[in-house]
Design goal:
8-stranded parallel β-barrel, TIM Barrel, Ala_racemase/Decarboxylase_C, EC 5.1.1.1, binds pyridoxal-5'-phosphate, Ala_racemase_C
């Protein structure tokens, strides 16, 4: 009998390890020390790890500050019961200014219309709102130019209901220890703030994961940790020191199950376009996932997966919902066997950085792709 309660789930499953997430947050918190706050960057659905679940886990280990891109994400967090400070980094439309007061959110500002709308909304509510000013000291992205900062601060000071609670900038190359831009951008940041004189006593923050790890002199009052929370190193794993041997732990893994095992003769073309043709009798395991699940077509004839703790190479093009791997060297592979696309199996491991290398991208994109295109389950340590 079929029960409506029977849970039917995808064979493709992203697993989020809460224990690793806690370990990484605690490691970063210890690394920066007691005088420095840690903002947990949970934009991008927490880099594919699930925004509200991630924020709730971090709240459980004392996190009090979160960073998101858009207002809608911040409101979602509040409605899910997340307390503390929630920063909206990418601005908002003026009509929505009131939401910052209703949900007690922290706006990052860089437009005159932002501060005017916030001031009006604050006055209407009989409240004061603290804002953080975004300046561009060489990132070449969002923010005010340093020369525009004094007048903008003056404007904030003159408006009722609003005050300057912090100033932030972003670093373009903090993932590279040697990059000359990092000290330059940092000096510009400090000088811009110094020029405001004693009139600014708020919070300063510029460090992403890269600067948090590689430039401890740039922690200021707060660091904004993203990729490191999720267990990857911003330089792609080229170096792996975060303080005294503390190792970050990958939080996400991605698994599927073998859908079919097929023995093919030499000379068989595999998948669309026959971009791979077998050169010997070959055993192929067919996997029920493809680019629709974030396992992108770039991984055709390039990716590897783990089966029985051993590596099996992808053969032929990756389809929307299928891909083929060569298990000729791995005896006894059967339908239903677990396949690890990202993460550990026995003593073997495939990291997000390794997959990023095959795809010509960075771990951030791999995590977003896998996490945001598959059903996620949360686990505590090993299953
Ligand atoms: C995403 C983001 C971060 C976090 O960067 P990581 O390299 O993931 O640590 C920090 N600051 C800003 C402004 C960001 O957009």
């Amino acid at each position: 009998m079929v029960s409506e309660q029977t849970q039917v789930v995808s064979r493709n499953q992203v697993r989020i390890d809460r224990r690793a997430l806690r370990h990484n947050f605690n490691t970063i918190t210890e690394e920066v020390g007691p005088g420095v706050a840690v903002m947990a960057m949970v934009k991008g659905d927490a880099y594919g790890h699930g925004m509200t679940e991630t924020a709730a886990v971090l709240a459980g280990c004392g996190c009090r500050i979160y960073g998101v891109a858009e207002l809608v994400e911040a409101v979602t967090l509040r409605r899910a019961g997340i307390g503390g400070d929630i920063f909206v980094l990418l601005g908002f439309v003026a009509e929505e200014a009131e939401q910052f007061l209703l949900y007690d959110l922290t706006p990052v500002v860089f437009l005159h219309q932002d501060i005017e709308a916030l001031s009006q909304a604050a006055v209407q509510h009989g409240r004061e709102i603290g804002v953080h000013l975004k300046i561009d000291c060489g990132m070449g992205r969002l923010g005010l130019l340093p020369a525009e900062v004094p007048a903008f601060k003056q404007r904030i000071d003159n408006l009722p209901g609003i005050f300057l609670a912090g100033i932030m900038a972003h670093l373009p190359e903090a993932d590279q220890r040697q990059a000359a831009s990092t000290p330059q951008v940092f000096s510009c940041f400090q000088e811009t703030i110094d020029r405001l004189g004693a009139g600014f006593t708020g919070v300063r923050h510029i460090a992403n994961s890269g600067a948090t790890m590689y430039f401890p002199g740039m922690h200021c009052n707060m660091v904004r940790a993203g990729i490191s929370l999720y267990g990857c190193y911003p330089d792609g794993g080229a170096s792996d020191d975060l303080g005294a041997g503390a190792r970050l732990q990958p939080v996400m893994s991605f698994v599927t199950r073998v859908a079919q095992v097929r023995d093919l003769p030499a000379g068989s073309g595999i998948s669309y376009g026959h971009t791979y043709v077998t050169t010997r009798p070959t055993t192929i395991a067919v996997l029920p996932l493809g680019y629709e699940d974030g396992y992108l077509r770039d991984l055709s004839n390039r990716g590897e997966v783990l089966i029985h703790g051993r590596r099996a190479p992808v053969r032929g093009r990756i389809c929307m919902n299928l891909c083929m791997v060569d298990v000729t060297e791995i005896p006894g592979v059967a339908v239903g066997d677990e396949v690890v696309l990202l993460g550990r199996q026995d003593d073997a491991e495939i990291t997000a950085d390794e997959i990023a290398g095959w795809m010509g991208t960075i771990s951030y994109e791999v995590l977003c792709l896998f996490g945001n295109n598959n059903s996620r389950i949360h686990i505590d340590g090993k299953r």
